[in-house]
Design goal:
- This is DUF1842 domain-containing protein.
- InterPro entries: DUF1842.
- It comes from Flavobacterium procerum.
- This protein is an all-beta fold.
- The chain has one domain.
- An eight-stranded antiparallel β-barrel has the order 1-2-3-4-5-6-7-8.
- It is globular, with a radius of gyration of 16 Å.
- The protein starts with 8 loop residues before the first strand and ends with a strand.
Length: 135
């Protein structure tokens, strides 16, 4: 059983133009198991604009693979769903999709993008909050 989690670690960071007024920022906290090519965790999307898209929490899962070359040594894909409310005056909510793609180095710095209900953010920085921790 212990081999299943061999090399597991916690990765935290952001996707987006941090410091740009009104820019959506995706903050991630992920458990990475390279031996299984798996990633699971939470992404929180925040935006300094009031409304249904100003704070979204998404449980995600995905895959991680080594590239074997170049500046970006790993690629990551994430998917998840969250409850999206209709903007006023409509009433109700539905399950919306979230996905992200990252091209990163071993310290979880690089570039990527993410998409969620009616938003597509591309070619933004990915920045590690700190050095990945062993789980």
């Amino acid at each position: 059983m212990s081999e299943l989690l061999a090399g597991a670690y916690l990765a935290k960071g952001t996707i987006g133009n941090v410091g740009t007024p009104g820019a959506p920022i995706a903050t991630f906290s992920l458990v990475v198991v390279p031996s299984q090519h798996s990633v699971t965790g939470t992404v929180v999307i925040t935006q300094a604009v009031h409304g249904p898209d100003s704070h979204i929490v998404v449980q995600v899962k995905g895959r991680i693979y080594s590239t074997g070359f170049g500046k970006f040594t790993q690629v990551v894909s994430l998917q998840g769903q969250y409850v999206q409310s209709f903007p006023p005056p409509a009433i109700g909510s539905f399950l919306a999709d979230f996905n992200a793609h990252l091209a990163i180095d071993n310290a979880w710095n690089g570039e990527g993008g993410f998409a969620y209900y009616q938003h597509q953010i591309e070619k933004v920085p990915v920045a590690s909050a700190k050095k990945p921790e062993l789980v």
